[in-house]
Specification:
Number of helices: 13
Bound molecules: NADP nicotinamide-adenine-dinucleotide phosphate
Largest sheet: 7 strands, parallel
Radius of gyration: 20 Å
CATH topology: Rossmann fold
CATH superfamily: NAD(P)-binding Rossmann-like Domain
Strand content: 5-15%
CATH architecture: 3-Layer(aba) Sandwich
Order of helices and strands: HHHEHEHEHEHEEHEEHEEEHEEHEEHH
Helix content: 25-40%
Shape: globular
């Protein structure tokens, strides 16, 4: 089980490590009070939960003018983020047009969006001639990125992660831009420290992580040079049931594959909570750019989460290796002071995940590789 203060002690199989993790647990973690189902039985139910706006978002969306552009909307987070914005606007009685922009190699996500009232525009954002034809917009959520496949084609990773931000900033010099970055911009840090903070040096391992630093620097450059208001959000593992670090661990436990422990601690955030915060971060944009870590406040132990998922799945986990003193971790306290960061209860998410995996729920087939420690994705 993850380490919660009210649960007393974590199990004692790696005293030093777990003691370190336990000390990091905040005294309170605000949790969402809205009614949540005990299980999620299918993708329609999952999508309803993932696109259900918080009261804070329904209030905040009233200040967003049309159109809201979501760039890189065809990936894992974009579709539910765009529909979350639509539902918030509808609940607020605010006439907000949401335009999802991507190449939409996957036509089904385009149809899914349009069926839910989101407009779509197919655009290769590397193409300056195509980007010019996109509508003007005062508010932009930037989700474009490339991570997997970097080992085979590092040039593409650098192009997507650095050239596209430059094109977007040149096309939208006055727009407010909330741009997703990643926790991978930090090197691993001591678990006992409780996670990297925003002022830490960005000296990660590997080409993907360094290209992600490049993405940030290009946004910062334009925020500085042309006063584009920017917020950079360094996300640590969004999770839902079809992908994410919890689904990865649950699938390994369910199929009896070993769960690697060397990267023994992690942060994460339920994707709906992440998307809700991403949209509410638009008023935080500024020039020079502001930077926040984005995750739940707790540090989770891989061993404890696997053990709890094993209990829920009725199968004890198999482990490989042992915990080390460092892991890729972030401290999200700064975002917590800027925005109300109410979280979906972790025990509920674990129940949903175990049930989903047990009953053969859809897997996107995009593993996080949370166990990677050499930066090679
Ligand atoms: N999900 C996570 O757990 C996580 C964790 C840390 C950081 N992040 C960051 O959060 C962002 C969103 O995450 P995600 O999981 O949704 O990422 P994702 O699944 O990789 O989606 C990003 C999307 O960007 C679009 N894109 C790439 N190149 C493009 C181009 N030239 N023109 C137009 N669109 C392009 C792609 O959609 P098309 O193929 O349709 O063009 C792609 O699906 C990413 O930038 C990532 O770095 C995510």
């Amino acid at each position: 089980m993850w380490v919660q203060p009210q649960n007393g002690c974590a199990r004692n199989h790696d005293g030093v490590f777990l003691e370190a993790v336990q000390q990091l647990v905040p005294t309170t973690v605000a949790t969402a009070s809205a009614e949540l189902p005990a299980t999620i039985r299918n993708e329609s139910e999952l999508e309803e939960i993932l696109t259900r706006p918080s009261a804070a978002l329904i209030e905040a969306i009233k200040t967003i003018s049309s159109p809201l552009l979501v760039l890189g909307a065809g990936g894992k987070m974009g579709p539910t983020l765009a529909v979350l914005a639509r539902r918030a606007a509808e609940a607020a009685g605010h006439p907000l047009e949401v335009v999802a922009v991507s190449r939409f190699g996957n036509a089904s996500s385009r149809q899914w969006l349009e069926a839910r009232g989101v407009q779509t525009a197919s655009c290769d954002l590397l193409d300056a001639n195509a980007i010019i034809r996109l509508p003007d917009a005062a508010n932009i959520i930037y989700l474009v990125g490339l991570k997997f496949g970097t080992a085979q084609n590092p040039a593409a990773t650098w192009a997507i992660n650095t050239l596209v931000p430059a094109r977007v900033c040149e096309r939208y010099p006055r727009s407010r831009i909330v741009a997703l970055s990643t926790g991978n911009v930090y090197p691993p840090s001591a678990v006992s420290r409780g996670g990297a903070v925003e002022t830490d040096s960005l000296t990660p391992l590997g080409e993907y992580a360094n290209a992600a630093v490049g993405r940030e620097r290009i946004f910062e450059y334009h925020a500085h040079r042309q006063h584009t208001p920017v917020t950079l959000l360094r996300l640590f593992y969004a999770v839902e049931l079809r992908y994410g670090v919890l689904a990865d661990i649950a699938r390994k436990v369910h199929t009896g594959q070993p769960v690697a422990l060397a990267n023994g601690a992690f942060n994460c955030i339920w994707q709906r909570d992440a998307n809700d915060l991403i949209l509410r971060a638009l008023p935080l944009t500024a020039a020079p750019a502001r930077v926040y870590n984005l995750c739940r406040p707790e540090v989770f132990s891989v061993r404890e989460i696997a053990t709890r998922l094993g209990e829920l799945l009725g199968r004890p986990p198999v482990f490989s290796g042992s915990e080390t003193t460092t892991a890729l971790l972030g401290n999200s306290a700064q975002l917590g002071t800027a925005l109300d960061t109410t979280a979906t209860p972790m025990e509920t998410i674990l129940h949903w995940t175990a049930q989903w995996v047990k009953h053969g729920g859809r897997d996107l087939g995009r593993p996080t590789h949370f166990e990677v420690r050499d930066g090679k994705y």
